Task: structure prediction
Amino acid sequence: MNSFEPPSQQPGRITAQGVSIRLGQGRQAFEAVQALDFAVEPGEFVCILGPSGCGKSTLLGALAGHLVPSAGDLQVDGRAVQGPSPERGMVFQHHTLLPWRSVLDNVAFGLKMQGQGHAARRQSALHMLQRVGLADFAERWPSQLSGGMQQRAEIARVLINRPRLLLMDEPFGALDAQTRARMQELLLDLWTQIRTTVVFVTHDIDEALFLADRILVMSPRPGRFIEDLRLDFARPRRASLLTAPAFTHLKRHCLALLRHEDGRELPRLTPLGLPSADHLPLRIAL
Ligand code: ADP
Ligand code: MG
Result:
């Protein structure tokens, strides 16, 4: 490659150096996450996997600009994160759709804030609703949708702003297993089309392995990264992956990591012991 080639112009690069985040007041204050160093490339799908309370939501809150790190440097595309922005869209476990607006108006809301005219934003919102399979529900109230449909509307509401980062905090955690599986496939299909950077928080190993290019595994509080797993399972990913030997092998490894209390003497990933072991779809970077 030509060394004078300019860096990728695609937005969505995250760089974090020595990021710690303190929560609580006075003598109750504590470090929720500690000295995090990581980088995410534009267009990557990264899952942050860790036990409950390890600081996943805290880190995502800092990326969203809701929380300020107490130490270190957190940048998106070379600029320090300062406050929330539609460029860094967040999806939580429960939707934030406004109950008194139609699904369409909720999705179009971001464009209204940008000053777009009524007809243009209606057209864009309808298009976005089509992409998440909700075109027929545009005029409904959010309360008239199922849980999965509400989350689809929520994703459309965020994606209409064309964010550099899509930040997702256990977004399918409240859904039943079948709906959740369908939502995972829908999200991957959308991501294939838009290729925005996704940082997806979950405590569910299967979910992380199914979705991600890469999994950052966090230790219990204070959260630190104890593993950086790169996955190379073929895309598009389908349900059959969940029972593939390479998948269950990595699942066992992640389970062992999460069960480990203090993060010392971490289990090492051993070869799969199958003829294809040399071609295991991963690389361990830590
Ligand atoms: P996770 O998302 O991994 O479950 P969180 O980031 O929500 O973890 O929380 C990390 C730790 O900080 C937890 O122990 C939680 O109880 C605590 N915590 C979260 N928010 C606050 C807050 N606003 N004030 C004090 N402690 C908090
Ligand atoms: Mg959380």
About this structure: Residues 23-24, 32, 50, 52-58, 221 surround adenosine-5'-diphosphate (ligand 1) (CB under 6 Å). The first helix runs from residue 56 to 64. Helices lie at 56-64, 103-113, 118-131, 147-159, 177-194, 205-211, 245-259. The two ends are 26 Å apart (CA to CA).
